[in-house]
Each structure stands twice: as C-alpha cells, then as structure tokens.
Design goal:
A hairpin with a 5-residue loop joins strand 10 (146-148) and strand 11 (154-155). The longest helix has 11 residues, at 22-32. The strands form four sheets. Strands 2, 3, 4, 5, 7 and 16 form a six-stranded antiparallel β-sheet that branches. Strands 8-14-15-6-17-18 form a six-stranded antiparallel β-sheet. Strands 1-10-11 form a three-stranded antiparallel β-sheet, with no helix packed on it. With 262 residues, the chain is mainly beta. It has one domain (2-259). The protein has helices spanning 22-32, 36-43, 59-65, 72-77, 163-168, and strands spanning 2-4, 12-18, 47-52, 55-58, 81-93, 98-113, 127-132, 135-136, 140-143, 146-148, 154-155, 158-159, 177-180, 184-187, 193-199, 208-219, 222-239, 242-259. The protein has five helices and 18 strands.
C-alpha cells in the first residue's frame, strides 16, 4: 500500500468573509426588534473561511517510481487517465460570540490540455474517483499518515477514541492524529462537482482546521483546474440563550480557477 506523506501548508490561497448582510439586517429589526447598537456590533463581526495551498501529487507516477502495486483493473485505466491526489486544509475562524451553524466547501472540477491549455471536452471531464472523509456521524480520530490501496482508494488508519476522551471532550493533540467531528457529509463521488458539508452539533462546533482529501481521475495529458465554492450560515449570541442568525450565504463561488494537478 502506497504511503502518503502530506507536508503542512501555511499559505492561504483564498478566503471568504461571512458578515451581516442587508436581508438579515432587516430581519433582525423586524423579527427580533434588535437595537441599532446591537446591529452595529454585528456588522463588525467578520467570520472567515479560508483554503490553504493544496498539496498535489500524481499518484500513478509516484507509485510507479516507488515500485508500488497497482491493481489489474487500474492498469487498464492508466493508459487513458491520470490520477491526482489532492489534500486540502480548510480553516473556519468565527468571530467572538459567533458560530458556524453550517458550512460548505465544494469544488467544480475542469481540465485543460497540458500543451495547448485549451479546455477539455465537457464529454470527458475530470471526476472525483475517491475522497475522504465521506460521512462522519460520530467522532473518529485517524492517524495522520495514511495509505492509498492498489485500487487508488483511501486506506485510513482509524484510532477509536476512548470513552473517557469522548465524554470529557479532551483528545490527544499529538501531530500524529487528526480528529474528525460530526457532522460531515460529502457529495459528488464519481462526478466533477464535489462538496463537503459541515454542521455544528450540541457538542461540537465547526471551528479550526479541517483536512479534506480526494483522488481526481482526468483524461491523459490534461491539467486539472478547480473552482472553489464556499458557503456558510453564521449565528451570533446576544446572550448564552439567544442565538441570532447574522449571515446565510450558500453556493458562493469564488470566481477563480486553481491548479489541482502537478
């Protein structure tokens, strides 16, 4: 099994800020009777969703260079297709007294010819061949190092959380592990549009770094491009018991294409 090593990326390539908009501002006045002073304080709250520089790797080239096993079924495909590993780090940074109730990170995949840089026919777009995480409904702690099978599927080495850790809310912060918390739902396997939804629960909020991985299948001699989609619903609490929605924005595409292959 091919072992993937992912260096940490600190460079932010894009970010989106979610703040009070005119529609929600009107709703706060009408439905909640919110004072002008409180509305002004909401306007100053900037909730950030950011994407770090992706880690990119041509899986087939790397596996062949290291003499790793590739399944018979995959060997039939690699004459026509390339397979690229992409690791994303998403950063969710709410303001004080704010909370991401829901957030979405998506990718709209496309490809260009490696030599001419012209778009590839829409009849043969790049697709998401495999991804991780898929659906997370309970806490899982996985080892930071993981592998790719001969079928180019993710092999995640899971480390179950102890009962004590799960109840106390304290987990091992070692760099050896990554904690995935509910709820996470993925969409778009085997399509050119992939997305992850993150939803806060009573115990856990959408906060901090989130690691996302995918393998992209694309026609031979092409370069993969991706247009990011960022969305979020944010609430702010005027007290511990009164959360108020201050921002709701979905399917907000970032109008720029980023390289997702070497």
């Amino acid at each position: 099994m091919y072992q993937v090593t992912i260096p940490e990326s600190k460079n932010i390539i894009l970010e989106s800020v979610f703040e009070l908009n005119a529609t929600v501002e009107s709703k706060l006045r009408k439905d909640f009777g919110t004072s002008e002073g409180m509305i002004e304080s909401f306007k100053n709250k900037k909730n950030r969703v950011a994407i770090s520089q992706p880690y990119l790797e041509n899986l087939i080239s790397s596996m062949q260079d290291k003499g790793e096993e590739i399944s018979h079924g995959m060997r039939r495909l690699i004459d026509k297709y390339d397979f690229h590993f992409v690791a994303l780090n998403c950063v969710f940074q709410p303001e004080i007294d704010c909370k991401f109730e829901w957030a979405r990170v998506g990718l709209d995949l496309s490809a260009v010819n490696s030599k001419t840089r012209k778009p590839v026919s829409v009849s043969s777009p790049p697709i998401t061949y495999s991804l991780f995480p898929e659906n997370v409904l309970s806490e899982i702690k996985v080892k930071r190092g993981f592998g790719v099978t001969p079928e180019l599927k993710f092999k995640i080495l899971e480390e179950p959380l102890s009962l004590e850790a799960g109840m106390s809310g304290h987990v091992d912060k070692s760099e050896e592990y990554i904690l995935y918390e509910p709820e996470i739902t993925s969409y778009g396997l085997n399509t050119s549009k992939v997305a992850w939804d993150f939803k806060s629960t009573k115990e856990r909020s959408v906060l901090g770094d989130r690691k996302l991985h995918l393998v992209i299948q694309t026609p031979k001699d092409t370069k993969v491009k991706g247009k990011f989609l960022l969305g979020a619903e944010v609430s702010s609490s005027v007290s511990k018991w009164l959360p108020i929605p201050v921002s709701k924005r979905k399917h907000n595409a970032v109008e720029a294409h980023y390289d997702l292959s070497e």
